[in-house]
Amino acid sequence: MKTHDYTHLLGELRSEYAARAPKSAALNERAQRVLVDGGSHTLRLMQPFPPRIAAAHGAWVTDEDGHRLLDFWQGHLANILGHNPEVVTAAVLQALADGVGLQTGFTERYQVEAAELLCARTGAERVRFTTSGTLSTMYAILLARAFTGRDVVLKVGGGWHGAQPWALKGIGYHGEQGYQHVETAGLPSAVCAEVVVSRFNDPGMLREHFRQYGDRAACFIVEPFMGAGGFMPATREYLQTARELTTQYGAVLIFDEVIAGFRFRAGDTGALYGVQPDLATFGKIIGGGMPVAAVAGRADILNLASRAGRVKFSGGTYSGHPASMLAAATMLRYLVAHETEIYPRLAVLGDRIRQILEDAFLDEGIYARCTGWGNDALPGSSIFMLHFPYQEGHPLSAPDDVFDPAVCDVALNGDVLQLALLLENVHITHGHGAASTAHTEDDAVFLEAACRNVARRLRKARG
Ligand SMILES: Cc1ncc(COP(=O)(O)O)c(C=O)c1O
Question: Which of 263, 294, 335, 349 is surrounded by the most beta carbons within 10 Å?
Fold first, then answer.
């Protein structure tokens, strides 16, 4: 294994980038004085400073300095129709003009329609909306613990379910400690002790964990398509084993579909595996660009949140916000109506992008592989993550395969790749992203040229 030192290249990239973006730099100086690290989401901040976006349409965004960037981050993977799709903006503008857009503190008809669509397309009996994926997974676990009267929360290493108490263990890969690390200070120690971390796509380990903890397990929470943990689909066997074991031990099966929901079909991803979870969480795409998330699933569990129930999932000020619910209903209706065009096209585009990324680096002698390809359950995928494994043919089916620095060159698909691509007017966050319906073949060609330039530059820098 030959490791590379990118210090010099990174320095070069940072100064080129800083020189071409004086307006973003000036805004960054102001931001640093009042915002923590200059922003409100760590992943969106970078050194020397992030591009500040002034406008976003379809596949492209424009920064304050006037650079048009081909964007595959697409609203933190929320924008499956591209930025600001007219179908949603027109509906929201009309609602604002009609006086039903901003907060009312009442309930209206949009959330009924959004809930009807969500239930119809996911097999859920009840849904409750909230305002972030983080809150949805927190409430789902709260419901599971109350329903079962048990404490232990089983999750998978690398699984990101938002920064909430039961989800802050086992996110990042930490050397010998693997995925047993707690990612934040300030958590009650009892919470950390209650979280048991298993390995993604490892049915044997899951069986062993249920054998050990099954009678104390409130739930097993897992993404049917692993997002931040490496962009890889679960195997059919893994999700079926999860269903069998949770049923056998009386634990609640929670599918976190905040990324996966409506990403691969106009509905939940569990259906593609023929597995119905007890609860599922949704976010991102379902909001149509607005902050909407949901817990959906069995009525007997969700009804614990009813007025007569025992779980304080009673809602927040902005739960069921009118314009957000309208955007959600509009997006869901659109995806359902156009399902047969949208998803096959996105799958083709996803294949094309993954191939472009791999080939651009391979052709310069840099071994690169993408995750995000479909499998026998998932017919195709618009989502991708680029990795640089040291060894050809190494399996990339669980987070430790791609985040262990002994297996992949993790330094390369961080800031180095991101900055080098930004200088080519392409925006991909830390090697991962997704195609939207707004991306075209011309965009693929643009991406290809950009990746080839970056790969050439990298080859030269490595010497
Ligand atoms: C699978 C998954 N669950 C939960 C969350 C948290 O959602 P949010 O960022 O909307 O709070 C995310 C966010 O990326 C996610 O990818």
Answer: 294
Domains belonging to the chain, first-starting first, are 7-84+339-462 (3.90.1150.10), 86-337 (3.40.640.10)
SS3 149: coil
Q: Which of 26, 25, 86 is nearest to 57 (CA)?
A: 86
Bond prior to 344 in cis (omega within 30° of 0): no
228 CB near ligand 1 (under 6 Å): yes
The alpha carbon of 159 and the centre of ligand 1 are apart by a number of angstroms equal to 10
Residues 6+ apart with CB under 8 A from 288: 88, 327, 328, 330, 331, 332
Q: Which residue CA neighbors atom 8 of ligand 1 most closely? A: 133
Q: How many CB atoms lie within 10 A of CB 41?
A: 9
- Expressed in angstroms and rounded, the spacing between residue 97 Cα and the centre of ligand 1 is 32
- Which atom of ligand 1 has the smallest separation from the CA of 291? 10
Instruction: Please tell me if the CB atom of residue 160 comes closer than 6 angstroms to any atom of ligand 1.
Output: yes
pLDDT in tens, 36-80: 999 999 999 999 999 999 999 999 999 999 999 999 999 999 999
Torsion region of 196: left, alpha or beta (phi above 0 gives left; psi -120 to 50 gives alpha): beta
The verdict on the CB of residue 223 being under 6 Å from ligand 1 is yes
Copy the structure tokens of residue 463.
């010497």
Task: Please provide residue 241's backbone torsions phi and psi, each rounded to the nearest 5 degrees.
Answer: -65, -40
Full DSSP string of 381-432: -SEEEEE-BSSTT----SHHHHH-TTTB-TTIIIIIHHHHHHTTTEE-BTTE
DSSP, collapsed to helix, strand or coil, labels residue 288 as coil
pLDDT digits (tens, 9 = 90+) for 214-271: 999 999 999 999 999 999 999 999 999 999 999 999 999 999 999 999 999 999 999 9
Is 283 near ligand 1, meaning CB less than 6 Å away?
yes
Neighbours of 159 (CB within 10 A): 24
Does 429 contact ligand 1 (Cβ within 6 A)? no
Greatest C-alpha distance within the chain: 68
Q: Say what the pTM is.
A: 0.97
